[in-house]
Amino acid sequence: MRQIKPRRAEFEKIVANEQQSFHWHHLVCKQFTAPYHYHPEYELIHICRGRGSRLVGDSIKHFGPGDLVFIAPNVPHIWQVSPECPEAETLYIQFAPEFLGPEFFKAPEMQGVRELMSAARNGVTFNSAVRQEIAARLKKFSALNNSERLLELIAILFRLSRDAGIRALGKDTNRARLNQREEERISRVFQYLNQNLTGLISQADIARRVRLSASAFSRLFKKATGKCFMQVVNELRIAQVCRLLVETDRTVAEIAYSCGFDTLSHFNCQFRHIMKTVPGEYRRKFATIASAKRQP
Questions:
Q1: Which of 58, 86, 88, 239 is the right S-S partner for 62, CB 3.0 to 4.6 Å?
Q2: Which domains does the chain have, with CATH numbers?
């Protein structure tokens, strides 16, 4: 397992080697170094270890071990590992829309897979049983030869297409393309947010850090994410709050302040707006789910 060195943010060109028609990789690292980016390939991403926030299109959510996401071509995305996380591990597959020829996915037998690929235009995730099954299959990829990997990829796509619990991550949006300099700036913004999310965050300060005026920064950020800057900051903080509500028994107030909210009234307003419920109800819901899973 090799460590990936940081690279400059840019449009990502993925090239499979001569013995493979698609790309797959097993990565273990402190941080995922891929910037906020997009590429013309489909991507299936499984998180083995690590926690943090993922941005896929206009969706901002917490991720943890077992996360499984399927993304269509040209959907901007980034996975940011929490600074306190000692190590992260992921298995992912990337393939071009016509990597098996222009007619393969048009076959009648592939209707379900075509529907899955269409749904992935906003990013999709799956129910827990399917995530566990696919995770186990991906972990065996390294033991297969190239021909077996190809057959297994097709089998995985079929299995995913039959999941009745598929959930779209985001909404249909007309996403503007960024140039290389713009991608570099947005990646620096997300890296800074990941490291400083619980502290005081100033849009004016971040604009200066990426050498833009306040108005130019606001326009660039809205172009890249479809959202205003503080909206994204609040969504990132609420994603962290949700994780702590589920994984700890700390009070709601303790969690809110630890995640960067300076008043409970502002926190409660943002939580209701983003999660469409209140913190206590959110915690009870997941406590009930966890209890049900422990039942024999």
A1: 239
A2: 23-168 (2.60.120.280), 180-292 (1.10.10.60)
